[in-house]
Give the backbone structure.
Amino acid sequence: MSLVTGRLEILKEEDKKDLDVARISVDEESESKRKLYIESYGCQMNFADSEIVASILRENGFATTSKIDEAELILLNTCAIRENAEQKVRNRLQHLVPMKKKRQNVKIGVLGCMAERLKTKFLEEEKIVDMVVGPDAYRDLPNLINEVEDGQKAVNVFLSREETYADITPIRLDSNGVTAFISIMRGCDNMCSFCVVPFTRGRERSRDPHSIVKEATELFEQGYREVTLLGQNVDSYKWKPANEEENTITFANLLERVALINPDLRVRFSTSHPKDITDEVLYTMKKYENICKYIHLPAQSGSSRILELMNRTYDREWYMNKIDRIREILGEECGISQDMITGFCTETEEDHQDTLSLMDYVKYDYGYMFAYSERPNTPAAKKLADDIPAEIKNRRLTEVIAKQQQHSLERNQMAIGKVHKILVEGFSKRSAEHLCGRNDQNKMVVFPKENFQKGDYVNVLVTECTAATLIGKAVNEVLV
Ligand code: SAM
Ligand code: SF4
């Protein structure tokens, strides 16, 4: 039985629906400690933050559990990026009301972006919440928990200009033991007009590179074989050493330092902003075999007019030139994925066609696509009317998704007949006789397990595919 199935068995049907989108803390071995249950929503940064929270609270006598019924502290690490993300958290809180009535000593805290956005309003609107903690205030959790245990409600939503949690070793939650995420920076200074992140995660700041290399080295020593360096805009990573004579560390420099830890440690990163990814980064990727040839390069729209309203600071041609540069330096096979928003303010049918034609130009391997959701107090909410009806946003979204499906299939078909180096992550979801893992371009590959194990690198000849998965078998041949 998989861990996930094991955990879901203890939940009611309506809870399962919400948990489709959440990650749940695991059972830590410990009899004496107090039990902490964390449910995390949203992006990888949030999942990485929950691991920092677990680490801070372990120092304060808590051990994580996957069983909400045995926890004395329940934390929901929330996302505010779209309205439906917030609605999921509100539904989840409603489902917790009967439990809280039965076990009044259980304390419930909300963390993350929704906590930061709503602040004390959260306590007024959701009575079962005891504690509201923003993404830069996790070190204060032990004090806030004390306040709550004294019968008060507690709030800390202070946003910092320095906090990176650099010295905290995350406790890996829900880990496959092979791949891990490392936060290299926090916050965002970009102010895309639709986006709530600059308000919920504060100003951009980079983490000390020594602590990043140390964390990646320790992960490798523990058996991990892949790290993903995380930030809202990794290409603007910048670290100024205290000694003014030393050079500033750029993202390309950091990438190189992590790649040099060991050739058997794969390095990935996310997210790249098209305006900031440099040739230096692309050449560093080319230089090191263990830096995966895959770039997540959100476009958001294919229309220059809409991109300007979104304050993305590039236009369609500029984005296309960046794609050309990636293909020139890293070749046709480099994986590229997108984020796209449909139905942004004033988007016409012509703008939408520009998005579809940009997709035809790039032929992305993968995509994350969303209907525009107005977020309170963002520049777009203040200056532009959310004037595209929901049916039109959704129809355009369906068209964008269909286009991406077609391209994902075409790009996967290009992989057929070639040998790919796969890092095994575990058993395939559908069969215990098959293993799965990713190739360089981040595509999931499934193949018969033979005697291979989690953490092995295996050369797999791909023989067939769907839009989502490559299927093949292990071979002894060298890579072509
Ligand atoms: N920092 C990354 C970037 O610049 O692309 C991604 C940040 S955000 C967590 C992930 C994606 O959510 C964005 O790329 C965007 O496509 C989408 N998103 C952000 N705000 C949105 C909104 N108000 N409505 C719909 N989608 C949104
Ligand atoms: Fe939001 Fe833009 Fe920053 Fe990404 S780069 S987090 S979309 S403001």
